[in-house]
Amino acid sequence: MAETLVSSGFRFDKLPENYIRPESERPRLSEIESLKVPLIDLDSSNNRDEFICQIRDACSDFGFFQVTNHGISAESTQKVFEISREFFHLPVEEKMRYYSNDPSQKMRLGTSVNVMKEKVHSWRDYLRFYCHPLEEFVNDWPSTPQSFKNVVSNYSTEVRVLGFKLLGAISESLGLERNYIERVLGGASQHMVMNYYPPCPEPDLTYGLPSHKDLSALTVLLQDHQVAGLQVLKDGEWVAVNPQPNSLVVNIGDQIQALSNGRYKSVLHRAIVNSSKERISVGSFLCPANDAVIAPAKELTSEESPAIYRNFTYDEFCKKFWSRSVEDGHCLELFK
User: Fold this and answer.
1) Long-range contacts, stretch 313-321, CB < 8 angstroms, 24+ apart
2) Burial track 78-116 (b if 16+ CB lie within 10 A, e otherwise)
3) What are the angstrom distances between the C-alpha of 195 and each of 35, 37, 87, 140?
4) Which of 180, 230, 318, 322 could, after both became Cys, cross-link 241 (CB 3.0–4.6 A)?
């Protein structure tokens, strides 16, 4: 099984056949332009009405934005990057202790996206693990590198605080009570994914992550400010999101699209790779509790604007999501 990891340390001269995308699906890297992404300052001294307006515009026009003065220290984010890099540089035998193809596992190392369902693999390894309630999951996290649990515990706690602050602002921007989304999520589960994209011999032929939308309510992404790789679909065109120093990328997930009755849409995004540098990103996902019932907010429906989506539990959504390949299209369409 060790050879399934692209972080095995083996350097390929050519891309293996099962990673090569059909010509019509390739990234066309030379054609991609950069996009100026909404940058929102979360400094608490700023005017709140203006802040809520910025959130509304970013969510409705883009589906994502970057935040500064977010309350997570540069030291904390740097430590998360370092510990992620250390983990993926461990000997393959050590990493494989955590390997699993079962998406129901709360802590697992994986590769690509869904190797049991997909036809073409992606140039990525990842470590996915749950982190709330912390005391329930932390003992199952890797004990190597030695400081992994301490570093990641601190960061996951900080990013959860930020996530709820943003969810409150998103609720207000929809004309709902500030705690509306938090209340619907039912305590909100939280998990993180550490993504590792090694140098790729033929980056024009594959992806680190193909086009997809997040099944979460909200995603907070820490990406490498030295090595760009995130692209989003804006107005029918793929554009690059260049990382800004000391910022985090935030994007709307499927659950907020459903709750907002389609006013805010989860955004299609993907990750590309390059031939010379490894890239690391760390995604934090705030999700509903498994038994939380997701439905369009009544305040956002009317005779003129009826509910687009039926009621569903998050557990039902996840089972449908993980039973499919990322190539099967947007899972939320199945809940209309």
Assistant:
1) 314/255, 314/287, 314/288, 314/289, 314/290, 315/290, 315/291, 317/215, 317/254, 317/255, 318/215, 318/290, 321/215
2) ebbbebbebbbebebeebeebbeeebebebbbbbbbbee
3) 23, 22, 11, 19
4) 230
